[in-house]
Amino acid sequence: PEEPVLLAELKPGRPQRYDWKSSCETWSVAFSPDGAWFAWSQGHCVVKLIPWPLGEAELCKTSERKGRSGKGEARNRGAAKEKTLECGQIVWGLAFSAWPASAETEPACAVALPCLILATGLNDGQIKVWEVQTGHLLFSLLGHQDVVRDLSFAPNGSLILVSASRDKTLRVWDLSRDGRQVQVLSGHVQWVYCCSISPDCSMLCSAAGEKSALLWSMRSYTLIRRLEGHQSSVVSCDFSPDSALLVTASYDACVIMWDPYTGEQLRTLRHVPLQSALDYSSEVHTSSLRSVCFSPEGLYLATVADDRLLRIWALELRSPVAFAPMTNGLCCMYFPQGGFIATGTRDGHVQFWTAPRVLSSLKHLCRKALRTFLTTYQVLALPIPRKLKEFLTYRTF
Question: Which part of the chain is the SOCS box domain (predicted)?
């Protein structure tokens, strides 16, 4: 694949203030599941909500995908306008809901249609939940005692929200029941950095400043297993689109790919320094990872590390297929329809990069379809050849 090309860059609209509250880092970026909205925490307690595709001239020029990303949504939204959400606190985590599955699951929206929701995790432990169309505040969820670092909605439209906090807990909220707190998950002994719900809504992975990630059941809210293998703090995690793989990224400069059903380590992706990228003197942690995410079709991964590189990895290969130089990267996220990646930086900027566009093979599409509803154990029990089982369980790398 070609190297990622910078399509556009967004910068905070306010001058930086030099007090302790000024924090302008973009710790979180998010696309709505239909690709119609983009949100970024641009520091200064502000979240920008931008209708997609961007009105950026650079993006329009270089991207013929503009018209493809949700034509229907664009019509439905009419002339949707950019919104600024004043959150009153530094914003760390962001997550869009899936569209509610039916009218019955609709929260207290001001519109008759099921509405799209954005949850924001704040510095004081609050979670503010906003209606995207209007920019109205729907709920303030109280319970966490410290920074809400990350948020994840159940992808099935049930309006179940999981939050990860520096108070070392995860909390489960039901927004269809006025934001009621359903469960508190305790088990971490350090700040929780990241939480990710599997696309089939059966599992939850959480990463804290510990060498192991925790895997939870989303049905019983109990701990399934600890995933042990990293040498330093695990800071980011993501499931593949078929829920059959889980990746964790750590300050040890490694991404580990796991089978979440068996707990088996399938492979390790090591972030080897590129000599040309930086002058590596005695710096030990220049490759500390910040973020990892799967591409929408499940054939690529993107990682952001402290060595000033965005890397793109192909699922079958052990070394990156493409690099892009980026300074102070903190987070990355693929556009839901593929084709590009958004990254957030410590300077409060957001950058949009081209990503390899791929036509999935029929083999991969079949595997993805099967693994969406079959666990590893169910695949292994099928009366099919061993080679086929290995392919279906991602053991043919």
Answer: 361-397
